[in-house]
Structures are given as structure tokens and as C-alpha cells.
Amino acid sequence: MGSLESGSGAIRTDSSKCRRLSSIRVSRIVFLLAFLLLLLPLVTHYYLSKVESSNQTNDPNRVRFKLESLEDLSALKASDLRLRIQEMERIKGSVSSELRDLEAKRQGLQQEIASLTSHIEELKLELARQKTELERVKMSVVQAQVAQREAEQRNAPQLSLPGRLYPSEPLPVNDLPPSAISSHIYCRQYNCFDYSRCSITSGMPVYMYGDALGELSSFLHTSLQRTSSFNPHFTSDPKIACLFFVPIGHEADLSQLSHLPYWGGDGRNHVLFHLSRERLQPSAAVVASELTARAIIIQSTFSHKSYRPGFDVVIFPALGPPGGDVWQDCAPMLPARREFLITFQGELWTSDGPGEALEWALNQLQQMAAGTTSDRFQLEFSCQPATEREDLWADWSMCGTEASRQAVLRQSTFALLLAPANASLVTTATLQARLWEALRDGAIPVILGGDRLHLPYSEVIVWRRVALILPLSRASELHFLLRSVSDSDLLAMRRQGRHIWQTYGASLQSILDTSLAVIRDRIGIPPPPVDDAPSPSVFNSTFSPLKTEALVADSEAEESLGPLEPPHASPAYRRNYTVFLTQGFEMWNDWSDPFHLYPQLPFDPLLPSDAKFMGSGVGFRPIGKGSGGAGKEFCESLGGNSPREQFTIVMLTYEREQVLMNSLSRLHGLPYLNKVVVVWNSPRAPLEDLRWPEIGVPVHVVKAARNSLNNRFLPYDEIETEAVLSVDDDAHLRHDEIMFGFRVWREHRDRVVGFPGRFHAWDLNHGGWLYNSNYSCELSMVLTGAAFVHKHYLYLYSNWLPQAIRDKVDQYMNCEDLAMNFLVSHITKKPPVKVTSRWTFRCPGCPVSLSEDDTHFQERHKCINFFSQVFGYTPLLNTQYRADSILFKTRIPHDKQKCFKFI
């Protein structure tokens, strides 16, 4: 409708317009047309006249002139234009030349600015280096001033052992009356020993007669000659001898003693060394008499009349090999309780009967075995078949063969030892042989009637920590006493007994060395100092390696972790006379843990440090300088506060020069670093053009005699600090981590303190131990690829650890870190300490190491099981403890956070 309406509106508009047009008049239209007709001619005429006049004024000559003028003007403008163009081109060339000159000058200035900037940076580095050197000089000046004040305030001068003093002639002859010689039975160390021949600096030289007195078996004769060559005390010069060693064989004619060339009339300072091996009966013993005079008697059988306490020495019979490792002869320490509770095999031969007390004890033992109990006993008081009747002096004979006795003892928790029926005997070789076999096979000795006996080296060994020593009257209470011993105590006593057997009686060498150590301790002579391993340089004396500046990370250069001090060695332990006043075996009772110091520590105060190591020509010294030293001093210094202490880095490398250089560069500016000892394990010498970084401390490169991982733990004489940081050449540790590890080690000096933690686990399916490197809340080992240890453990690893373990390390070219963890845990009964939460410490992009080999883990499984066999048990202990600093911003993965929720 709207469209229609709009359309009708349009129709109405058009009709209105038509009406207006129709209303205009016709006259007006005519008038308009006439006007237009008159105007048109006029306009046409005017236009035509204008054109004509214009044509008349255009003269050809004028036109020609105008054209010529225009041509001249255009020619003039073209010439000028060319000149201007040339001028502009000349200006353009000049400007371009000037621009090139300016660009060259700009580039020269930029190069000069870069050179000056580089020079400024070098000057800044030199300034920082000079500031560091200035700080070191200031520190050394302060230290010198402190040392000067200490020297001025010291009341006594610092003493060290003087040179060795020796006698100048053989033992002089003393013409004593028979009454003086007959006083042999009252001999003690103070009245029968000549101290004038044994100065405290002499080292106690011992001269051994070449020929034995009496019949000595070829085995004992050869073994004595061989073992004496390994003992540093023996000398071939009788003029300087402190002791004169006389081997005594079977059925020796003691009257020949007076004919010995150095007997001296009374036998003073002579040692009669009688070994029991084939013959164990008491009748074969050497009896003190006028013939033995003032000589010390060392043997396994003594009577009350012949034994001189504090003068004669009771030893084990020589039932073992000449020397070497004896761990293969030992029984495993586990399980704690065995098939039989207690066993005994023996037969008493006496014409007078066992005696009333012994007979009562035997009846009580038989009733105990026949009683109703779940415990099993094997008590045989007669031999089947019966042994041959011999003059046993009412002693107990040994039944069966050594193999049959060993089979029984290895199934026994306790081994019964009965005192001889002859009360005049204080010890017999047969009794010591029983004790020897029990300790070897892990059966804890139970000695009935032991309150009147003397056991081997009883003046220095606390036998009550190894055996149950009871009077005969306790026979009726024996079963109760045996059952009251806990499993932990059983293992502790078995472990201690194994150590005593291995150290003091397992071989002829250990018996000989221990006997001399007892006498040496009596007369107050310090043991020989331990020998450091030589550190020959890989470079010739005439060659100086090239040096270069170390590249230091900005984060490590900016952070201050401690003062940069000049090298400062740890204080040396010096043996002096007071060591015998402060390090006696009586002090062992002061320890709450009876095995903290003896005998599980191989650096025991007296015998373990001397008897074991004297055979290899070493004593004990925990650090590299000084003389003497002992484990007691080491233990006392574990928690001590040292105002100044530094550490030495030992880095093992093999033909990875660039990796080594990078690792050394990262040590630049490391506080408390004393020295870096690089063990060059490769037979090929370093390249002559190899540039060694300057890190501010000495870098000593040791040439290894052969390629062995055991070289990592040699006690090099270049190591002058107690703290040793063992590092792989591809380990990447920050300075703050090293500093924190060093501080933790100072509070746990007796343990392995490091970064990579590992643990061992029992294989439930196949049996045996497995090595595990997965990240876990627990650990039992800290790998020595980045760990702090005390230098004392380097001595123990190289000199005390069984050779079989070091041979296994060479065989696999692996497991040296596991061996060190076994050693430290065995000695301390403590787990290692892990610091920080780094999950990896290998440098990125380094060449593949031995640990990436497929057989690496299989070999480590075998190593743990083999080391457990050598030690007799697995000393590794699990721990969940980890030392961490609250200043470390460590990002812990989500799957590992549960391990640290209580830390």
C-alpha cells in the first residue's frame, strides 16, 4: 500500500508541472526566439573578424626570427645543463670519496675502541689478580705474625727425634757369678734387659742367628728366613743389634747357648724363639733354667715355674702359612647362631685322673648335653679311634683330623676349651692350637678353667672381648650363660676373634712381627714411620709445561666462599716418649663402644699398628709429614677444631687431556685448596704443547707406574693435608658444593663424605648382593669420584687392605670406590655421609667413561659379593641421612620429594 501511495503521489506531481507550462503565454515564447535569431549573426561576425586580424599580424619573417631565437636559447640551455651535470658528477665523486674516507676512519676507530675495550678488560682481570695476590700476601703476613707470636710465647722448643743411635760393638761379655745367673726365675724387664743397646731412636735392630739351635723343620727354617726379610727391624750387623734372635728347634741342646758368639755370658737381650707346629706336647717346650739365663723365651707352652710374667711371651703355634692373605681360610661370620650351641672333641690322658674339680665339671657338661632342650650339643671326651698314648702332662689331646675338626667348628656357635688337668701348666701348645682353630672357624671360645691360664699376648690383648673365660665352678651355669649372649654380641665377638686371628696368629709372619712388637713396646721404642708413596713427576726436570689463564664461570667468580690462602700443610704427628704414657691398652676400657678402637680398627694403639705393618716395613702416620704417629692420635683428632685447614684434590685421568684441562680450570679461585695432585695413569706422556691452566695453587702431575685404579688411593708424599678430595677428571662440581662438602667432612672426619650416593640390596630371587645406582631415600655407599676422605685411609687401603681386593680392582678395572667404602665402614661401623641433592655430577659433553660400559654393573655386583667374602660379612650400612645447606636452592623432582619430607 505504501508503494502504491508513493506512486500516486508521483503522478500528481507530474500533472501539476504540465498545468504550469500550459499557463505560460505564447507571445513570450515568440519574443525569445526572435532575440536569439538576431544575436547569433552578430556573434559570428565578431569572431570571423578577429581571426582575420590575427592572420594578418603573423608575418613569416617574424615567425622565422622567433624560431631562431628559440633554437639559440635551447642550445644555450643544453650546454649549460651539460656543465651543470658535469659539475654535479664531480661533486658526487668528491662526496663519495669523502664518504669512503670517513667510513675507513670510522672502522679504524671502531677497531681501536674494541682493542682498548679488550685491553681494559685485561687490565681489570689483572687488577683482580693483583688484588687476589695482595690478599694472599696480606694473609701470609698475618699468618707469619701469628706464628711469630706463638713462637715467642712458646715455653718449650719444638722437639723432633734426633738421629738414630747405635752401639758401636757387639754385646760385651759379663763374667757373673753362678748365683747371679741362677736368679733367672726372677727375671723381669727391669733387671734382665740391657737398655743401653736400645736407644729410643735406634728402631730396635734385631740380629738373627743363621743356624737354629736344635732340629728345625725345613718349613719353619725357610719361612723364618723369608719372613724376617720383610721385617724392618732385622739387621745383618750384630754390632748395632738391640736384640739377638735365636730360633729353637725340637730337642735343642740348651747347653749350646753359652757358645753363641754374642751370648755375652748371661744371654741378656737374647730372644729364644720356639715354634710349635708338628709337636704340640708340653714336653717339647723350652724350660727356663740356668742355661737360658737372662734370655727372653717366646713359645706356646709354659709352666708356673718357668713362666716369667712381663718378660716371656706366649704365642700361637705356627699352624698357618708363612705369610700372605689368609681370608680364604676363615669361616663366614653369618649366621650368628649355628647348628650346635657348643662342641668339644678331646681326650684327657693322665695317670692321676682328672682331679675332683675337673671331674665334677665334666659331669655337669654331660648332664647339660643330656638335658631336655632345643639346643644341640656335641661334647666328646674320648677319641674314636683312641689316640696314641704320649706324655701329654695331663693335657687334652685333639681328636680326629684338622679337616674333621674344622667341619664341626664351622657348625658351632661356641667351642669349648678345657684347661689342662695339670695345674702347674699355665698354657700349652695344644690349648693354643684349639684356640687358634676356634678363632679361624668363627666359633667363640669358651675356656673353662681359664682364670689360671695365660693366653697369647695377654698383656696387650683383652681376651674377655673375644672369649668367655670362666672358672670350672661355672660349668653348671654354662648353658644359661651361653643362651644369654645376644646375636649382636655373638657377631661382635666373632668379628673381633677373626681380627685377632688374622693379625696375630694366622701366619708365621704375623707371629714373628707381633712378638717383636710386644718387646718393642715394653722397652718404649716408637715403631718405624709409615712410608709415603713416591710422587714422581710426569715431566722431565728440564721441561716446563706451558701455562694459560684459567676460564672461570661468572657465577663462581662473583661468589665469595672463603679466603684464598697460601698452601698450608696439616700439622704433623710426631712420635715422642709420651706416646707410651697416653696410648696404653688400659685406655681401651674408657670407650663406650668396646670395638671403637680395638680390634676392629687396624690402627690400634699398640699391636695392630705395629705388628701388622712392621712386616711390610711401615708403621703409622695419618698424614704425609713427620714421623711415627698412631691411630689413637687419629681418633682424638677426629672432632678437633683446626683453626686453619686445607684440602688436597687427587684427580685420576687417562688420556682425556681437554677434559682434564677444563676440570682444572674450574678449580681457579677455590678457597682452602692446598694442592692438586693429578695421577697420570696413561703410559703416554702429556703433549708438550698442552697448556695447563693457572689456578693459583700448585698442580703436581704424578706419573703412575702402571695403569691401575688403585693409584687413586696411594698415600702420595705430595699430599700434605689430612683432607683429601678424590675427584674424577670429568666430575663437574661447583665451588659452593665443594666448600659445603669440606665443612661437612670436618665434622665427620672418620667417614667418606661426598656427593654421588649408591646402595646395595639383597637379591631375593637368586641370592647374593646387588649394586644399585637408582636414586633412593637410602644409601650405603658414597662414590669416591667426588668425595672427601682422610689420608689415613689411603695408608690403610694401600697397606692393610687384603691384596686380593686390590687384585680384583685391577682385574675388573673397576670397584676401587666400593673397596674404599667397605674399608671405612668396616673400621668405623658407620655409614658414609652424602651432601647436597645433586642427581648427577658428570660434565655435559664429556667422552664416555668406563662406567657407561654394559658390563660395568655386572662387575660391581661381583665385587660386592667378593669383598663380602674377604671381610667375612658385608660391613656396608644403610642410612637415610643427608647433609644439606639451607642456602642451597635445590629443585627436587616430584618423585623424590618424599625422600626429604623429614629433612
Note down, in words, how this protein is organized.
GO terms for molecular function: glucuronyl-galactosyl-proteoglycan 4-alpha-N-acetylglucosaminyltransferase activity; metal ion binding. This is glucuronosyl-galactosyl-proteoglycan 4-alpha-N-acetylglucosaminyltransferase. By secondary structure, the protein is α/β, with parallel strands linked by helices. Helix content is 37%, strand content 13%. The protein has 22 helices and 29 strands. An 8-stranded mixed beta sheet has the order 21-19-18-22-27-23-28-29. The protein has a 6-stranded parallel beta sheet with strand order 2-1-3-4-5-7, with no helix packed on it. The longest helix is centred in the N-terminal third of the chain and has 94 residues. The protein is elongated. The two termini are 92 Å apart. The N terminus is likely disordered.
**Helix-and-strand structural type:** alpha/beta
End-to-end separation in angstroms reads: 92 Å
**Largest β sheet strand count, sense and barrel closure:** 8 strands, mixed
- State the strand order across the main sheet: 21-19-18-22-27-23-28-29
Overall pLDDT confidence: 80
Work out the helicity level: 25-40%
* Weakly predicted, low-confidence segments: 1-13, 584-640
Envelope shape: elongated
Cα gyration radius (Å): 50 Å
Percentage of residues in strands: 5-15%
| SS elements, strand count | 29
Family: Belongs to the glycosyltransferase 47 family.
Pfam family, one: Glyco_transf_64
InterPro entries: Exostosin, Exostosin_GT47, GT64_dom, Nucleotide-diphossugar_trans
Protein name: glucuronosyl-galactosyl-proteoglycan 4-alpha-N-acetylglucosaminyltransferase
